[in-house]
């Protein structure tokens, strides 16, 4: 039953992603120096997808409890929704590249009223949920290591947004959290 739900949730996320307007457009201005994160996300994505299931299957560094698997499934679903929600909100302004798009506006409402990078938080939460579904200590470590390229990406994006929106960005930044309310 849990495996079926995992497949249904994953399928739903894939289908939902197909209806977004997110893209890989360099827009009117792009920070090309930040493209290294694609390699980091690619490696961590492949390892993060494979290693938790493998370590669970062989019983290496696993956490106890079937309840943990169900909690992980709920966290995985919530993270997936949080990862995609900002893509729908931003529409064509959402690019996989660090770029300012034509007609780019600073969004400060909805989820963006509290968190400046909700999609990255969703990515991390999804990885955490995936690791917990497989009770994988290795998966948790891999998810934590994903913070390195995420923080690098956040810094590059925020630098570009500051240069584009100036005082409006500074005011927005002063009243919001980068990733996790009350922490960072």
Write the layout of secondary structure elements.
Layout: H1 2-18, E1 29-30, H2 36-58, H3 66-90, E2 99-100, H4 118-133, H5 137-145, H6 147-174
Antiparallel strand pairs: 1-2
Overall description:
This protein is 64% helix and 2% strand. It is mainly alpha-helical.
Spatially, the strands of the biggest sheet line up as 1-2
Radius of gyration: 17 Å
For this structure, the quaternary state is single chain
Helix amount: 55-70%
Low-pLDDT regions:
none
Q: What does the largest sheet look like? A: 2 strands, antiparallel
Structural class: mainly alpha
Number of helices: 6
Number of DSSP E strands: 2
Average pLDDT over all residues:
96
Strand content: under 5%
Terminal CA distance:
36 Å
N-to-C order of helices and strands: HEHHEHHH
Shape by Cα distribution: elongated
Question: What labels describe this entry?
Answer:
184 residues, mainly alpha, two-stranded antiparallel ribbon, 2% strand, elongated
Short structural summary:
64% of the residues lie in helices and 2% in strands. It has 184 residues and is an all-alpha fold.
């Amino acid at each position: 039953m849990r495996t079926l739900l995992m497949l249904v949730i994953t399928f739903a996320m894939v289908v939902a992603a197909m209806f977004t307007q997110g893209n890989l457009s360099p827009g009117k201005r792009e920070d090309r120096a930040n493209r290294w994160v694609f390699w980091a996300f690619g490696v961590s994505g492949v390892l993060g997808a494979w290693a938790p299931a493998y370590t669970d299957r062989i019983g290496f560094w696993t956490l106890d409890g079937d309840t943990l698997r169900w909690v992980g499934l709920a966290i995985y679903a919530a993270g997936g929704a949080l990862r995609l929600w900002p893509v729908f909100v931003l529409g064509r302004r959402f690019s996989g590249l660090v770029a300012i798009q034509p007609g780019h506006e600073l969004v400060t409402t909805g989820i963006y009223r509290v968190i400046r990078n909700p999609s990255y938080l969703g990515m991390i939460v999804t990885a955490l949920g995936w690791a917990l579904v497989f009770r994988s200590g290795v998966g948790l470590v891999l998810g934590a290591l994903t913070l390195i390229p995420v923080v690098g990406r956040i810094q590059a994006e925020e630098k570009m947004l500051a240069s584009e929106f100036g005082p409006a960005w500074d005011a927005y930044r002063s009243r919001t959290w980068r990733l996790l309310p009350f922490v960072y």
